[in-house]
Amino acid sequence: MTVLLFGFEPFLEYKENPSQLIAEALNGSTILKEEVKGVILPVEYEKIEDLIVTKIREMKPILTLGIGVAPGRAKITPEKIAINYKYSREGDNAGKKYKGEKIDPLGQDGIFTNIPVEDLVDLLNENGIPAELSLSAGSYLCNNAMYIIIREARKYNSLGGFIHVPLHESYAARIQRPIPSMSLDTMIRGIRLSMEFILTNKKENLTFS
């Protein structure tokens, strides 16, 4: 069994992406006897679905967790729901934009994660890691990835979800405007703790509605 951890490459003005750094840092580690496989996703609508579907089919992980950066957020924010919707004012790394199309024309309008995100938020805060629940993963690549992750995890009766993180401090310090941030070490600890918590409680979470 494995844990599949997706991060994203840099995009738009953000020349470093903490989700990539977290996935790389945790790649090859072991959490509760499960090996973590970190995979970096391109910020391209036309590529991420095939990559996510292929990796989940190949690895059949017990948990697939996506991570993305949410510039402007100050806390780690586990996401509750992914919506079947693509909209972007800015293009992806290939210049592609969408104006309200569905991710999956045959899919549900929204899919809830089967990760206990409410309890996860409490756990992170209790361990000194600022966290809050998010009810919107947006409409850009993170929401797109989350929708596919949850959809595919259902096929294997496994766990799937998504967590947004702030910008990391070392990069935020180089941006010429005020912006919330968090230390990379704290975010790595937060994601590791999240995976431990999810795996510990996995039996209660393997139900879908």
Description of the molecule:
It is a single chain. With 209 residues, this protein is of the alpha/beta class. The chain is built from seven helices and twelve strands. It has a single domain (2-205), classed as Peptidase C15, pyroglutamyl peptidase I-like (Aminopeptidase, 3-Layer(aba) Sandwich), CATH 3.40.630.20. Helix content is 35%, strand content 23%. It has a six-stranded mixed sheet, with helices on both faces. Strands 6-9 form a two-stranded antiparallel ribbon. Strand 2 (30-31) and strand 3 (34-41) form a beta hairpin.
**Regarding CATH, which class?**
Alpha Beta
* Radius of gyration over all CA atoms, rounded: 16 Å
Give the CATH topology: Aminopeptidase
- The appropriate CATH architecture is 3-Layer(aba) Sandwich
Strand content: 15-25%
Structural class: alpha/beta
Total number of distinct structural domains = 1
Average predicted local confidence, pLDDT: 95
Helix-strand string: EHEEHEEEEEEHHEEHEHH
Q: Which word captures the global form?
A: globular
Largest sheet: 6 strands, mixed
EC number: 3.4.19.3
Keywords: Cytoplasm, Hydrolase, Protease, Thiol protease
Protein name: Pyrrolidone-carboxylate peptidase
Catalytic activity: Release of an N-terminal pyroglutamyl group from a polypeptide, the second amino acid generally not being Pro
